[in-house]
Predict the 3D structure of the following.
Amino acid sequence: MQIDKITFNDISIFHSEEEYSIFSKLNFTRTIGGKEWLRRFFSEPHSDLKKIRGTQNIIKTLMAHIDEWPSEITNGTLLVMDKFLDYRLDPGPASPNPITALSYRLVHSADYSMMKYSIRHFADFFRGMKKLEVLLSAVDLPAQVGFLMERVKKTLNIEPLAILADAPEGTKFTLTDNLYFSHHTRWVYKSDILELMDIYGRLDAWYSMAFAVKKYNLQFPQFIESDKPFIEARGLYHVLLQEPVAYDLVLDQERHFLFLTGANMAGKSTLIRAAGSSVFLAHLGMGVPAASMRLTLFDGILSNINVADNIAKGESYFFNEVQRIKTTINKINDGKKWLVLIDELFKGTNVQDAMKCSLAVINGLIKINNSLFILSTHLYEIGEELKSYSSISFKYFETEVHDDQLSFSYQLKDGISNDRIGYVILRREKVVELLEQL
């Protein structure tokens, strides 16, 4: 699936302040390597159904074993191992005995201390990997995981590593043991161990995805094979919200353009981001924040939400809005299936100009029936000129005002909003009163 940096940020997959990102909320990895693999997964949403369904199967498999995940492998353990494997260690005897081992410790005391400390962590790691191998050996694994676990099993059968894996927790290794295991981990089987650490990172990332799906009760979507784009979501909500209000959303060949209106704070931007992020998560192979969801495979997601000006380049907000729309048109005019998300088009110019520009853009985009569009706007007036299009679905979020107090239901309704609450907010916040007192 194609998705650019702007869209990643617009729908909050990644964020400059990480705690506000969907990636951060769904990240339950235990290691740095796992987090790197998870970020890689999130950066490369799948573009074919086989990979999506394969990842779904991996997550479903691991969900059944969340509580059995080995606790021996921690980020600290892997950091110690990684440091040891890169440490400028003076080589010890390949087959140490008590005399050569004692001699090494006397001459290379710092190196020996490093060995002694590190080998305990290697034992923890191999013990944990063996538990994973035993745990998953009785499971009908998806092919991708099965291949990795075969590599794990083969590596753990190497004699020095097998001995470490079988060592009970808290085992105190002798001076000779430490030199023996250090020689084999640092010099003989270093590449095998690095591969095993990388495999665990990938398993950790899948574990995180499974944990997130289970913790947040995300539902696996059903993919429909069709040449025409389609989304049907029931009980859809935004995964970042603490107390979300769910809504239903349908976009298909007959109604492929959603014209969304409503006052500020009514929920338009949240709906747009919820739709975009859910389609994104579906293409990762994860569950989505909805009661149910059916959709086709999409070739890409493009957004026009958080456009900014560029003072250094002398580019205005409106100019960058135009450039983003131009980029969108050039990309989606390729016969492929795109989800296009546009929030408050042409905010950077006056109302009359914005209306004229918005109509021109919508009249053009509506011709592209291979893609689905969700567009929000304050320009309610242009809705009347668009009602002749049978392919446009008109929805709005209602706002109620009682004694200058605003009430939002966050529920989608059929039609076009005519709410105008800007002056109400100005008055409620005492700005009008302050101005009158000047």
Q: What stands out?
A: The mean pLDDT is 90.
